[in-house]
Amino acid sequence: MLTAEEIMIRLLVDSASDYTQEEIRNKNLYFVPLQIQIEGRNYLDGVDIDTETFYEKMMNSKEFFKTSQPSPQEFLDIFEEVKEKQETLICLSLSSKLSGTYQSACLAKDMVDYENIFIIDTLTAAAGIRLLCEVAINWIGENRSVEDIVSGLEELKERVHIYAGLDTLEYLAKGGRISKTAAAIGTLASIKPIICVNHGEVVVAGKTRGVNKATSVVCEKMQSDIVDTLYPVYTLYSYGLENVEKLESKLDLDVNRARIGSTIGVHIGPNAFGVCFVSKL
Question: Is residue 216 left, alpha or beta, with left meaning phi > 0 and alpha meaning psi from -120 to 50?
Fold first, then answer.
């Protein structure tokens, strides 16, 4: 029997975290991909298709791409491996309000007879999951207990914010979020919606005219929430760097740039930009 000090703490993320496969290997993470349906074919996000190819296909297709959650079996396979190795696992799942991924992980945990698996509904997506994972990696490096790490992440996730400006309403229309007529009018008027992740859900936080105004509004949202610089700050982009570069030029902060992958990209399209950060208490 291993002692508490000898049990290794590992982390599991799904592909909504937008880590590359190289990053997954380098950080020694367990990984479960969501599926993306593109023109009748299913791809494993980040495995069968990379982010660049995904956006290129999206821009050249008239169809709306769809995502689907991993099955409980995909989590169970990893949980059984963790049990065999007598590791401790913290699973950081895409928000339960955006996907059934969290439910699949919980079902798998119910099937494996092993208590050292902790599943966290991050109530966020994309760089929000990455941020929590990076903090967890640091805490593991500080030899914190798994109970301390889990409780710390549960508290921290309530302070993770994402604000993003969209370049077009087209993909919201394809997903049935708004009418195609409204999307066409928005394009003519150069209207740029601002979205945020609020308590696990994506909501429209406002609309502006033009990219320059949209980047300013995103900056104003950050200032109103007061950024806690003890934690990483990420700027976000989907496809194309022009808009995120405009945003970064207005920020007086050290930031890391993170790409928005396929899982969220399905709904926001290319040329989206944004920020992810932790607010002060």
Answer: alpha
- Tell whether 98 and 222 lie within a shared domain: no
pTM above 0.90, yes or no: yes
| 3 assigned to some structural domain | no
Is pLDDT of 171 > 90?
no
How far is it, in rounded angstroms, from Cα 17 to Cα 129? 5
Asked if 173 and 204 sit in the same domain, the reply is yes
How many structural domains is the chain composed of?
2
User: Over the stretch 46-66, which tens digit does the pLDDT of each residue have?
Assistant: 999 999 999 999 989 888 898
- With respect to residue 4, please indicate whether it lies within any of the assigned structural domains: no
Q: 201 pLDDT band (50/70/90 cuts)?
A: confident
Q: Are strands 191-198 and 160-165 parallel, antiparallel or unpaired?
A: antiparallel
CA atoms within 13 A on the CB side of 55: 16
Per-residue pLDDT of 129-167, as tens digits, reads 999 999 999 999 999 999 999 999 999 999 999 999 998
Each as own residue / partner, the long-range contacts of residues 138-146 (CB below 8 Å, 24 or more positions apart, any chain) are 140/9, 140/11, 145/4, 146/9, 146/88, 146/90, 146/116, 146/118
* CATH code, 223: 3.30.1180.10
Residues 92 and 186 in one domain: no
Q: Tell me the residue range of the domain where 84 lies.
A: 9-157
93 and 225 in a common domain:
no
Q: How far apart are CA 223 and CA 227, in angstroms?
A: 7
Element (H, E) at 244: helix 242-248
Exposed/middle/buried for residue 207 (C-beta within 10 Å: 0-12, 13-18, 19+): middle
Tell me, rounded to whole angstroms, the distance of Cα 204 from its chain centroid: 17
